[in-house]
Amino acid sequence: TPLNDQGKVRNISYMAQSANSTLWVGTGEGFIRYGQKAKALPGTGLYKLVGNDLIIAASATLIGNVINRIACHPTDANKLALTTNKGLYISTDGGASFNPAQIPNLKTDTTYGMDVKFASNGDLYCSVGNERGHSPFGTVNGRIFKSTDLSVFTNITPTSNVLADANYGRIELAISPSNPQIIYASCANKNLTAPTGAQSLNSASLKAIFVSYNGGSSWSLVLAGSAQLDPLSSSGVISTGDYAHVLLVDPDDANKLYIGGYNFYSFKRTNATSEAQVLGTWSQMGNPFARNTPL
C-alpha cells in the first residue's frame, strides 16, 4: 500500500532507517556516465518521512544535489552520515543540522562521497573520491576513511604490491553484521570516458577486493581483478564498476561475501583468517547484467 503515490519527490536515490524508526530519503542520481547525464534527475536534498509525507530535512544547496548513501548509527538516532557530490556530511542532532566532515585534503569540487556505513559498534567507514578518470578528476583517487567519534577521520585506504597502482575509482564497502572488525572494500578502476567522444566501455573494471579483520588497521588482498575473474566486467569487454557496483557480507557468516556488478558472485573464504593469504571459492550466481545490451 503506497503511503503517498502522489508525492512530489520522485528522484529517490537511497533510503535508510534510524534507530528510532525514522525513515530518511535521499535524492539525486549519481554514478552516471557521460552521455546518460542528460537523463538524470538532480536531487533536491534529504527528506524524512513524517506521517505520509516527505519533509525536507537538508536542502541540496547545503549538502549537494546527489545523495549516494545514508548511514544511520545502529543505536543512536541522533547520528547520521551522508555521502554526496559535495563530500561527507554528518549530523549529531537527529538531522536538525548537517556539517561537512573534516576529512584531510578533501577537495569538495572534485571529490565526491561514495559509500558510508556504520559498523555495529558505532565506528564509521566511508569512501570518497571520484569514479571518473578524465581531467580534472583523474588524480582524485578513491580513498577510505574511518572515524570512531565522527570528528577525527583516519585514512585507512588499502594497498598491495600486487597491484600496479592505487588509482582507485569507485569504492564500495561492506561490514560484517556479526563482527564489526571485519570490513571488505571493493575498488574499481576509474572510468576513462571523456565528456565528449566514444565511451570507454571496459575501463571501470575491478582493480581489487580487500578484507580487514581488525577494523581497517591492516588489509589483505582477496582478489586482483582480471579478465578471467571480474564481477564488474564481462571478461574484459564491458564493465560496470563506476555505476553498477554493490557489496554485502553474509549476515551469519563473516567469511562469505556477495558482490554484484556486471555479474553476481559470492566468495567464501576456506583457509584460516589468521593466515596472511586469503584463499577461498568464487561462485557465479544468476545471469550477467544486461548481457545483450552494450553500455
Question: How does this structure look, described?
Answer:
This protein is mainly beta. 1% of the residues lie in helices and 37% in strands. The protein is built from one helix and 20 strands. It has one helix spanning 60-63, and strands at 12-17, 23-27, 45-50, 53-59, 67-72, 80-84, 87-91, 99-100, 112-118, 124-129, 143-147, 154-155, 168-175, 183-189, 206-212, 220-224, 246-249, 256-260, 264-269, 280-285. A four-stranded antiparallel β-sheet has the order 1-2-3-4. A four-stranded antiparallel β-sheet has the order 5-6-7-8, with no helix packed on it. β13 and β14 form a beta hairpin. The longest helix is centred in the first third of the chain and has 4 residues, at 60-63. It is globular. The two termini are 35 Å apart.
Short structural summary:
With 295 residues, the protein is an all-beta fold.
Short descriptors:
four-stranded antiparallel beta sheet, disordered C terminus, globular, 295 residues, mainly beta
What is the radius of gyration? 19 Å
Number of DSSP E strands? 20
Helix content: under 10%
Could you state the order of secondary-structure elements as H and E? EEEEHEEEEEEEEEEEEEEEE
Shape descriptor = globular
Let me know the average pLDDT.
90
Report the β-strand fraction as a percent range. 35-45%
Placed side by side, the strands forming the largest sheet appear as 1-2-3-4
Beginning-to-end CA distance, first to last residue: 35 Å
Spans of 5+ residues with little confidence (pLDDT < 50)? 291-295
Blueprint (SSEs and pairs):
Blueprint: E1 12-17, E2 23-27, E3 45-50, E4 53-59, H1 60-63, E5 67-72, E6 80-84, E7 87-91, E8 99-100, E9 112-118, E10 124-129, E11 143-147, E12 154-155, E13 168-175, E14 183-189, E15 206-212, E16 220-224, E17 246-249, E18 256-260, E19 264-269, E20 280-285
Antiparallel strand pairs: 1-2, 2-3, 3-4, 5-6, 6-7, 7-8, 9-10, 10-11, 11-12, 13-14, 14-15, 15-16, 17-18, 18-19, 19-20
